[in-house]
Design goal:
234 residues; alpha+beta; RNA Polymerase Alpha Subunit, Chain A, domain 2; flat
């Protein structure tokens, strides 16, 4: 994984007001900690940091006020839910060669069989990897899979130096039989009934028509039987 260099500045003002002023200056409040070092409050360049953190578990090379550079990975990123901008970042100091525990995203690709419905049970998986070789993501293919197939954590192909930090039987993808239209309609009707939603006039008319059609088929069957009996008597 390539390192992204960011030039940071020491932060001397704290609190919500100071944080707002920092963001107005197109900078991001952050803290740098780990390996027994004293927590350092810094500000990061807004645009460069936003670009860097588009990559999950990005490896950052942080230089604070021109001093010694420190390697770090994002431990927690707080984002504005409406704007999508970054409000604050917690950075964990790491060292080359050491192992870190991180969550890595899973991307499901391919199309299962037409009769199947793909259920993604977990969108990420926890692994242990070298700080400088953290995977950016894992791909899981469901191409052509039939109902009944399950993909577990142990089925994911991990790069060399990376190991699972979760139960290997953890369910990632579950391929089940797709529901029929009748099952979907029944589910919807049940949900509407529980919610106290009355059927619309169109729904009632359609239901009555289906019931009448069923009765007509039954009467037609009886008439046919009666005609047959009459022919036998003759």
């Amino acid at each position: 994984m390539a390192e992204v260099k960011l030039n940071a500045e020491l932060r001397t003002e704290f609190g919500k007001g100071a944080a707002r002023r920092t963001r107005r200056d197109h900078k991001i409040p952050a803290v740098l900690y780990g390996h027994g070092a004293e927590t350092t409050h810094i500000t990061l360049p807004g645009h460069e940091t936003l670009l860097a953190l588009r990559v999950a578990n990005a490896l950052l090379s942080i230089e604070v006020d021109g001093e010694a550079t420190r390697l770090a990975i994002p431990k927690q990123v707080q984002r504005d839910p409406l704007k999508g901008t970054i409000d604050h970042v917690d950075l964990l100091i790491v060292r080359r060669g050491e192992k870190v525990t991180v969550d890595v995203g899973i991307n499901v690709t391919g199309e299962a069989s037409p009769e199947a419905l793909v259920m993604t049970e977990n969108t990420s998986i926890t692994v242990e990897a070298e700080a400088t070789h953290i995977p950016t993501g894992f791909e899981v293919s469901v191409e052509g899979l039939e109902p009944g197939v399950q993909i577990l954590a142990k089925d994911i192909v991990l790069p060399e130096g990376t190991t699972l930090a979760v139960d290997e039987e953890l369910l990632i993808v579950n391929v089940i039989a797709a529901p029929t239209q009748a099952e979907l309609d029944a589910e919807l009707a049940e949900a509407e009934a529980e919610a106290g939603i009355e059927p619309t006039l169109d729904e009632e008319t359609e239901a009555a028509a289906e019931e009448a059609e069923g009765e007509g088929d039954a009467e037609g069957g009886e008439d046919s039987e009666g005609s047959s009996e009459k022919s036998d008597d003759e």
